[in-house]
Automatic annotation (TrEMBL):
<feature type="transmembrane region" description="Helical">
    <location>
        <begin position="237"/>
        <end position="260"/>
    </location>
</feature>
<dbReference type="GO" id="GO:0004984">
    <property type="term" value="F:olfactory receptor activity"/>
</dbReference>
<feature type="domain" description="G-protein coupled receptors family 1 profile">
    <location>
        <begin position="41"/>
        <end position="290"/>
    </location>
</feature>
<feature type="transmembrane region" description="Helical">
    <location>
        <begin position="272"/>
        <end position="288"/>
    </location>
</feature>
<feature type="transmembrane region" description="Helical">
    <location>
        <begin position="197"/>
        <end position="216"/>
    </location>
</feature>
<keyword id="KW-0716">Sensory transduction</keyword>
<keyword id="KW-0807">Transducer</keyword>
<dbReference type="InterPro" id="IPR000276">
    <property type="entry name" value="GPCR_Rhodpsn"/>
</dbReference>
<feature type="transmembrane region" description="Helical">
    <location>
        <begin position="31"/>
        <end position="49"/>
    </location>
</feature>
<feature type="transmembrane region" description="Helical">
    <location>
        <begin position="102"/>
        <end position="120"/>
    </location>
</feature>
<keyword id="KW-0552">Olfaction</keyword>
<dbReference type="InterPro" id="IPR000725">
    <property type="entry name" value="Olfact_rcpt"/>
</dbReference>
<dbReference type="GO" id="GO:0005886">
    <property type="term" value="C:plasma membrane"/>
</dbReference>
<dbReference type="InterPro" id="IPR017452">
    <property type="entry name" value="GPCR_Rhodpsn_7TM"/>
</dbReference>
<keyword id="KW-0472">Membrane</keyword>
<keyword id="KW-1133">Transmembrane helix</keyword>
<keyword id="KW-1003">Cell membrane</keyword>
């Protein structure tokens, strides 16, 4: 208990982002501009979907939730990172570290579940076009999103409570720019076997199973297209699934690079770069790869601008 109280008072030092002093302002401006782009891009998507009735469909309902998740996911780490870049002591209090870990798990897991839901939506749209409206009812869409929130909230809370029961003493340096769960376990003085077991079990549920379900969905989509290999079907499949595949590739590419492909050589630098890709670059690029290049979104933007600014009927 004494070790925990000491950690609560002193917190942790986040030393994962090593930048030469002469480059500090350059990287600060870069990260700030990327973060603002993430906020504005995802907010624009959410607002457009809310304002334009043509976008009140299952696909855009899920996309609005994905944009909200990306916005929050990036906001969990970037404000603290930007603040620490201007500070001589890049620290975070014990309670703040646990809170950051909780929300990182929550919104990171939520994106994984939402990508599965979106894959199912695309599968139904292509393989069962005549029954799409009856299958993807508003009630089912809401239930899928609520279920995603419930599962991810429980998972994040489970890991946070297990982490809170550990005692910390001695070294309080985290070799990351955020409160990484594996780094915290290495600093713990008490037994972490239960934490490691839960991570091993739930890791497959949260990451591997959703990824497999996405692969299965697209395998069925490809199989359906090959049965009737018309140019119209292929164009529809590309227009329907291309943006979602881009988001899936960005998300799982960075996750695999960060957690499943460890490297002994320059591991700290690699983990830092991959974490920045995962927490900053991916949420920033998702709006462009998923919706802002979409024709429906461009038309919706034109209608909203015309209605709100030009006072068109």
């Amino acid at each position: 208990m004494k070790g925990r109280n000491q950690t609560t008072l002193s917190g942790f030092l986040l030393l994962g982002l090593s930048i030469y002093p002469e480059n500090q302002h350059l990287f600060y401006a870069l990260f700030l501009s990327m973060y603002l782009t993430t906020i504005l891009g995802n907010l624009l998507i959410i607002i457009l979907i809310q304002l334009d009735s043509h976008l009140h469909t299952p696909m855009y309902f899920f996309l609005s939730n994905l944009s909200f998740s990306d916005l929050c996911f990036s906001s969990v780490t970037m404000p603290k990172l930007l603040k620490n870049m201007q500070s001589q002591v890049p620290s975070i209090p014990y309670a703040g570290c646990l809170a950051q870990m909780y929300f990182l798990l929550l919104f990171g897991d939520l994106e994984s579940f939402l990508l599965v839901v979106m894959a199912y939506d695309r599968y139904v749209a292509i393989c069962f076009p005549l029954r799409f409206t009856s299958i993807m009812s508003p009630k089912l869409c809401v239930c899928l999103v609520v279920l995603s929130w419930v599962l991810t909230t429980f998972h994040a809370l489970l890991h946070t409570l297990l982490m809170a029961r550990l005692s910390f003493c001695g070294n309080n340096v985290i070799p990351h720019f955020f409160c990484d769960m594996s780094a915290l376990l290495k600093l713990a003085c008490s037994d972490t076997s239960i934490n490691e077991l839960v991570i091993f079990i739930t890791g497959g549920i949260i990451l591997i199973i959703p990824f497999v379900l996405i692969i299965v969905s697209y395998a069925r989509i490809v199989s359906s297209i090959l049965k009737v290999p018309s140019a119209r079907q292929i164009r529809k499949a590309f227009s329907t699934c291309g943006s979602h595949l881009s988001v899936v590739s960005l998300f799982y590419g960075t996750v695999i690079g960060l957690y499943l492909c460890p490297s002994a050589k320059n591991s700290t630098m690699k983990e830092t770069v991959m974490a920045l890709m995962y927490m900053l670059v991916t949420p920033m690029l998702n709006p462009f790869s998923s919706t802002l290049r979409n024709r429906d979104m461009k038309e919706a933007l034109g209608r909203v601008i015309c209605k709100k600014i030009c006072f068109c009927p």
